[in-house]
Amino acid sequence: MITIEEIFNLDGLKQMEDNWGYLLKESGVDNIFLSFDWILTWWRCFSRGNSLFVLKIMDKDQLIGIAPLMIRRHTFFGLPVRTIYFIGTVVSDRMDFILTGPKKKESILAVLNYIMKNSSRWDFVDLQEMSDTTGNFHILRECIKELNLPAMSGIDERSFYIAFRNIDKGKFLKTFSKNIQRQFKNVKNRVSKEMDSEFEFKRFVNTNGNGISPEELVSEIERIEKASWKGKACSGLFSEASTKFFHNEIIKGYFKKGLVDISFLSIKGRNIAYQYNYSYNARLYNYSVAYDTKYSRFSPGLVLQIHVLESCCDSIIDEFDFLREEAEYKNRLTSDYKIHARTRIFNGAVYSKFLFILQSCILPYLKNKKIIYKTWMGLKKAAHVFKKRY
């Protein structure tokens, strides 16, 4: 019989470290964003306003799964709400239930039943960034239908990737379109003529013996980000104190374990672009990219991206994962992608029913009225930027 045990505090979470790592490796959803170190660091940096809602899934006395959840108090379109999220939501690019063995459906049914029994503690559930490749999203949809729960579920966005198996580095550039090949060649010539220099590519991981410290890497990333459009729009990793502290901690901790992979593109000894990646289980997760806008005419983002991809051909990397957020340049580099899905669940309370109507009917209607929706979202963005700056 499947039962659920809830973890309420940080001490209880810390005691799960060894079991967490073992279950994750056996689960089929093993990725950097579900690792215990990532989850624990996230909680230490962003726990304010949140409550742990981590669920241990037990088959008799055996731990067979974990639902890494939390309850967050926040506002949704100006309304106060209590939402159940995966731990790491917003910062993490891939989230899921950690399940092992043949009883995955029974496990998810038990989690949903436990959540519904505690419906007085939340207003809606919002499970984001579940990859359709793990199978858990499809099981979740089956369970929601079986329990007849009011819910919204579907594709949220695409996550592009490149597989490197059997790719020859010498022929790698030729795998791209002729337009990209031509652009790459033209910008290199432009740098040579205008700057009397060439691009220099540098890649840093802890195993290459270059002597650079994590603090130096963070400082250089922050400097470039401030000079990028992200810095000017206050939307970068280092635009807020909380995310800045988080990535400082992650880079310092993961650099020692060989899990951080950071590359720079420079001209005349000055770094003008960076790519901040995580190396985990023979995959390179592309977390953040930025470049100094003064050098936009040289397409530094594209040039750096191609250099990084070429370097993967010489390493143990099997796959380069662009992660979430669709972008035109990703589509130009590859046509392969995974689906990120999102599921929202509501309960029987009047307020939760209203939130269901708001999200399933009213907001989609406003999105169709583009002028109204764009005005509203523009005002939200302006208020967010103003709050960060002042």
Describe the structure.
This protein has 390 residues and is of the alpha+beta class. The protein folds into 2 domains: 2-157 and 339-348, 3-Layer(aba) Sandwich (Aminopeptidase), CATH 3.40.630; 166-317, 3-Layer(aba) Sandwich (Aminopeptidase), CATH 3.40.630.30. The protein is built from 13 helices and 15 strands. It has helices at 10-14, 17-27, 36-46, 104-117, 136-147, 178-195, 214-226, 229-232, 241-256, 300-312, 328-333, 350-368, 370-389, and strands spanning 2-7, 50-52, 54-59, 62-67, 69-76, 79-86, 98-99, 124-131, 151-163, 199-204, 260-267, 270-280, 283-291, 319-323, 337-346. The strands form 2 sheets. The chain has an 11-stranded mixed β-sheet, with helices on both faces. It is globular and about 70 Å long.
Please name the defining characteristics of this protein:
390 residues, alpha+beta, Aminopeptidase, 2 domains, eleven-stranded mixed sheet, four-stranded antiparallel sheet, 13 helices, 15 strands, 42% helix, 28% strand, globular
List the helices and strands and how they pair.
Blueprint lengths: L1 E6 L2 H5 L2 H11 L8 H11 L3 E3 L1 E6 L2 E6 L1 E8 L2 E8 L11 E2 L4 H14 L6 E8 L4 H12 L3 E13 L14 H18 L3 E6 L9 H13 L2 H4 L8 H16 L3 E8 L2 E11 L2 E9 L8 H13 L6 E5 L4 H6 L3 E10 L3 H19 L1 H20 L1
Helix pairs in contact: 3-9, 4-5
Short recap of the structure:
This protein folds into 2 domains: 2-157 and 339-348, Gcn5-related N-acetyltransferase (GNAT) (Aminopeptidase, 3-Layer(aba) Sandwich), CATH 3.40.630.30; 166-317, Gcn5-related N-acetyltransferase (GNAT) (Aminopeptidase, 3-Layer(aba) Sandwich), CATH 3.40.630.30. It has 13 helices and 15 strands.
